[in-house]
Specification:
The chain is of the alpha+beta class. It has seven helices and eight strands, in the order E-H-E-H-E-E-E-H-H-H-E-H-H-E-E. It has helices at residues 9-13, 30-40, 71-74, 79-91, 98-104, 112-123, 139-148; strands at 3-8, 20-23, 49-55, 62-63, 66-67, 105-109, 152-157, 160-165.
Length: 167
Amino acid sequence: MSKIYVSTYRKYNEGNLKGEWLDLSNFSSKEEFIEACTQLHADEGQPELMFQDWEDVPSSFVGESFLDDRIWEWINLDSHEKEAVQAYMENVDHLATIATAIESYSGTHDSPEAWAMEFWEETGMLDQVPEFAQGYIDYEQFARDARLGGDMVFVEKGRRVRAFRCN
């Protein structure tokens, strides 16, 4: 559940931590969310909203006084897509669109070498190499060159890596 704890700068400056967690899935747009925040703090004339904490939202989408419109696209993703998008935005391009992050995702693998093996198989390149010579393919070097050449980014997560195409 993606949610944000909303208070105001005035309350914070007065030592009052009064606020409320709002579930983002209850709102269809930033405007609707801001309206609810404003209503929540109607005891202030024009509340200066402060987002003090958040859960299940990439840090590039929210800050103390900042809220990115991409959040509403984010909350509609499944958990695997969210993990991939977050890894992409934290390690490749934090300004990318969610669609770009998803399109760039090339799966989760045991290692960059495992990604390279799968790449050779899926693209049909392996079929073009005679069977007796297939054992000589250096998948580790291929993955290294793809990374160093700027074609791929590998993001480690525990014992697995997420692979992202950069072109």
